[in-house]
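Q&A FORM
Asked by: J.P.
Topic: structure of Indoleacetamide hydrolase

PROVIDED:
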Amino acid sequence: MVESKGMPLTIESLKTAFKSGDLTCEAYVNTVIERAENLKHLNALISVDWEQLRLAAKAVDESGGAGDALNGIPICFKDNIQTGVLPASAATKALAGKRTCASEVATRLMGQGALVGGMGNMHELAFGITTNNGYSGASKNPWNEHRIPGGSSGGVAAAVAAGIMPAGIGTDTGGSVRLPAALCGIVGFRPSVGRYPLTGMVPVSHTRDTAGPMANTVRDCRILDRIMADKHDVSIDKTKEVSSIRLGVPRAYFYDNLDHDVAWLTEKALNTLLDMGVTLIDADIPNVGELNEGCSFPIALYEFMQNLPEYLSANVPDVSVKDIADNTLSPDVSGLMASLLSDGAMPTSVYREAIDVVRPQLQNAYKEYFDKHGVDAVIFPTTALPAAPIGDDETVELNGERLPTFSTFIHNTDPASNAGIPGISMPIGLTRDGLPVGIEIDGPYGSDEQLLAIAEALEAVFAFQQRA
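REPLIED BY: S.T.
REPLY: Here is the structure written out as tokens.
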């Protein structure tokens, strides 16, 4: 693992250092740039403009406002989030160099003084979890450079975990914020669907897509969430009393076939919570796997073929879906695009069943679970296994068996995505091979502030050390 060299790596610590005069924004940005260049081999960033960033930092210092709100804080944006400052290509060739107006999420953050530090590499078009991209190259996990950082927001996770950027913004359709956060030992938050606006982001599915903050601490995610949700009147001073927290433990489905180290670290974390007074309720969510399977791909693939043409027409009208498909260079994504174009999109009847019948059943299963058991959230390992070797794009080894990479990694993160409820992953420890393991809590729809407060309380219990 790369060392932090004493750099302030949280938004909170940077704000304090800026306000006290112990650090100027320009000096910090110069350190960020030096670190990014020294760690260029991680391939975390797909595009940067260091001169522009230096000028922006100098302007912040000259204004005297460094440390106010997000003033002077550089943030890494996933390459499918428009900033208006750097191109947003979704890490695919046909959209390379396309600089469009800023997304609403980026506008809110920049409106509070955030600087665009760079664009994070990602799995091409956000259709994968390895960030092994045939166009932009593979991003590497800072804890082990032969391993994936996860995806699809893998570049953002790698940049934050490596200490290049203090925080970043990813997108999450089926786990693309929480999954790389878990594999890279940082915090990743997916909000309730609709909490943040979707405008100005290269889409997969309007039902499932959302932006999400990624940082070294839950507190930093809370700071970013408040701005991204335009909730400036929401206090983030309070956390939950640990002894008042009630968590459901849905062992069926979410605890199936776990890697040995993941299982051991998860049980250790649960026992620690019990010792600290957290109430754990062993209870399963009925039919969660079957309901999730019935709506996951039908919704995503159908809506992608509706939403992408709409996005292109509004933002890059000179590029067609066929242009993107013809220039997709990652074998897994290229095959998917070819299939969608040749065979047609998901049948409307299948989509309507998924969106009108199965998804509401999944949402109701979660609601009844929370109501029946009186729990604040459910808790489970974010992923069944730690970061896989780079190149394991089709299958991955888990407990002596080769399994499909994509479905194995998103197994635990996908249900909450389809239900539209909030979830957050935080690190709990390292495997015997020194790879991070994350644990996730998901709460009822709209419980975002409470879930973040619970996560901050649990984070203090877990006391994970981000950097060796």
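FOLLOW-UP: Residues 290-349 form one domain.
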